[in-house]
Amino acid sequence: TSSVAGAVKVGAGLTVAPDGTLAATPPIATSSVAGAVKVGGGLTVAPDGTLAAIAPPIATSSVAGAVKVGVGLTVAPDGTLAAATQPTASAAVAGGVKVGCGLSVAADGTLAAVIATIAALRALPWAALADGATINVAAYAQRGDGGGGVFTWNSTAAATDDNGSALNPTGNAGAGRWMRQLPLGRVTPQMFGARADGTTNDTAAFNAALKVGRVTVPFGSYAVSGVLLTNGCEMEGGAGLGYAGDTAATALVRTVLIAASGAACILNAAGIKDFSLSGLFLDGSNTGCDGISAGSTQMTLNRVTVVRCNNGLGSASGSDLYTHIATLIDCEFANCTFGVSNLIDSVMLAGAVSACQQGLWLSSGAAANNFIGVRYEWCTQHNIHIYQAQKNQFIGGLVDRGYVAGAYLAGAADIHFVGVQFSRNGRNNDAAFLANSHLVLDSNNVSIVVTNPIWTAGRDDDGTGANTPQYGVTYNNANDRITLTSGDGGGYLTGFARGPEPTNYVLRDVTGSGDNIVTAARPYIRAGCIAQTLQTRNSTNITAGQTSTIALGQSPLTSGYTTYCRELAVFATDFNSGNSYAARFTLTFYFDTAAHGPSASAAYGEVGGSAVFQFSTTAGTLQLSTTGLAANGSAFTLNVKNSGGSGNFGVWAEMR
Fold it and tell me: Can you say how many angstroms the Cα of residue 641 is from the centroid of all Cα atoms in its chain?
């Protein structure tokens, strides 16, 4: 048993009977005591004011000042404290007490009336109330709804009645308000009448709460329609990061906002600045509404999940497309038509965009964004779709199992993928040209840079589904400008690249990319080393007297006396002896009115005959010659002949 300072201190062996009487345990008959109060039989008052059971019982004495009577209490003729119809001023009552139903103990020890609902508080007589009078309200509208609280009367307050933090009594046309005590400065939607039953429209309660202060949203399901966020607002729930298959019905106990009937969006952020949302789970229920609307500036989202909306965040079409200076941390957007759309100057850190039709959508004007460690996966169109957007960077993360393509770019500029893993894209195994690839460059893309990627092919997680993609990169226009640097060029089934090879195509240190290139000419580089091994056409041994060919390519020569200087490195292994040999040659290509070359420099190896290079081995001589130079110099054939009487060679060539 604990004691309450300043009120009645309850000693050991006491109980509160159903009628509110303090009595000994086991209960004994109640006796009457002259004076203001009735004290249960068998009780005594210790020198410090504690009511306690004694054996044997002795007469009860009164202790002055033991109980402070709060506003809204009265003392009945038999000494019982009870809630009054007309609140009275505080008074001291001598002795022990019989505590009537509907009373509470305030922090300072004052016994006060507990009013059942906000409506009952409004109905209390207010004309004679003194400033500072305090009443405890048990609930907003019904027991256990979480909307009660402590209210203090302020006779001069004239604040607008907001149905939660400032209440105007019934019939009051002037000043005087019941003001809710908010010691932590936080409010809940329940304080303004939210039911959190998933059916009742709680939008008005959220709107009112957001105007008052920092909003904490307890666990529950709230049906809302276009909640109006406010400048500088903070709203925090208890939801953790969701996953693609989660809905309001299947999610664990969380703070869930469900789209109410007819909702255009769940949260309306248009024109709002400097606000933060955390721990919320938004479910559009496939009604066609948006999750968080476009048009905001300086938004922070942390552990926010948005599912089954048209636009999860932002907008893919319309007059107000963009979301500015957003920071998204550990957020999930899933099963939406568009997961995240049209950010500007924003950062998305970790989290995922999953199982949408279009995962990340960036159109013209969406620029200067950084996406770090984000998963884009299982989208039924493209995981990433960039149309005429500029200056966006993807660092790390995973682009996995896009049904059509992993990333689709058209008219984009200055797009960088750094250390991104492209995995199992093209799940539909679609035969269409602009599909079934990790990366599709549709047309007129400028300065697309892919550095240190990881490319992998595969099936669904359970081993079913098509093994995809067929290609690493698909080109649709020779005007594209792309640089692929380092990384693994594998992770495809048919070829590393297909389509009209871009005029400005740079490939550096991409292992495996030379094995199965489908284009007419292989990737080239204007400067530096492509660092790829180009095998003989049939990958079998070159025996005595046999000739094999290797197709080589480079950027086309243009008019105006263009000149290219290349280094050709040739490596040969005699499989009979195990010996290896190498030679290097300088090739010069130039264009005046037509393409010319190659010519050879005597600085490398032996030169024999016109445009014929050779180097000797211990078992015979390999002769190298070139034929089939294209009119624009973009392709030619290297012929390798084993002119010796023995040897069984494998030959590789690199052009630098």
Answer: 60
351: number of CA atoms within 13 Å, CB side? 27
Task: Give yes or no for a contact between 194 and 223, defined as CB atoms under 8 angstroms apart.
Answer: no
DSSP result, 17-68: -TTS-EEESS---EE--SSS--EETTEEE-TTSEEEE-SS-------TTSEE
- Rounded to two decimals, the pTM is 0.68
What does the alpha-carbon distance between residue 203 and residue 350 come to, in Å, rounded to a whole number?
30
Q: Are 27 and 43 in contact (CB under 8 A)?
A: no
Instruction: Give the closest residue to 277 by CA, choosing from 312, 257, 304, 311.
Output: 304
Buried b (16+ CB within 10 A) or exposed e, 10-21: bbebbeeeeebb
Phi, psi of 54 (to 5 degrees): -130, 155
Residues 6+ positions from 431 with CB-CB distance below 8 Å: none
What 3-state DSSP class applies to 368? strand
Residue type, 494: T
Segments of 41-165 assigned E as strands: 43-45, 50-53, 67-69, 73-75, 80-83, 91-93, 98-99, 103-105, 111-115, 134-137, 149-154
Host H or E run for residue 118: helix 118-123
Q: Which of 76, 63, 62, 69 is nearest to 34 (CA)?
A: 62
pLDDT in tens, 508-520: 655 544 433 333 3
Contact 172, 124 (CB under 8 A): no
Q: Residue-wise over 397-412: b if at least 16 C-beta within 10 A, else e?
A: bbbbbbbbbbbbbbbb
Residue 152's DSSP bridge partners are 134, 179
| DSSP secondary structure code for residue 3 in this structure | -
Task: Write out the two tokens for 422.
Answer: 């492209």
309: Cα separation from own chain's centroid: 14
* Weakest-pLDDT range from 41-55, 107-121, 233-247, 396-410: 41-55
Contacts of 528 (CB under 8 A, 6+ apart): 508, 656
What's the number of CA atoms in the CB half-sphere (13 Å) around residue 339?
A: 33
User: Strand, coil or helix: what is 123?
Assistant: helix
Q: What is the dihedral of CA 520, 523, 527, 531, to 10 degrees?
A: -130
Please name the amino acid found at residue 166. Answer: A
pLDDT at residue 615 in the model: 58
Strands 648-655 and 43-45: unpaired
- Calculate Rg over the CA atoms of the chain: 40
Give the E-state strand segments of 225-272 in sequence order: 227-228, 234-236, 255-259, 265-268
Provide the pLDDT confidence category of residue 91 given band limits of 50, 70 and 90: very low
Phi and psi (nearest 5°) for 322? -100, 150
Nearest-angstrom CA–CA distance, 417 and 395: 6
How many helices, marked H, and strands, marked E, lie in the chain?
A: 2, 66
Kindly state the percentage of the chain with pLDDT values over 90.
45
Task: Give the pair of three-digit tokens for residue 500.
Answer: 């009209």
Task: Measure the CA angle with vertex 469, ends 514 and 497; round to 5°.
Answer: 30
Cβ(392)–Cβ(415) below 8 Å: yes
- Helix ranges, 215-347 (H): none
Q: Which two tokens stand for residue 630?
A: 């294209």
Those residues with Cβ within 8 angstroms of residue 127's Cβ, 6 or more apart along the chain or in another chain: none
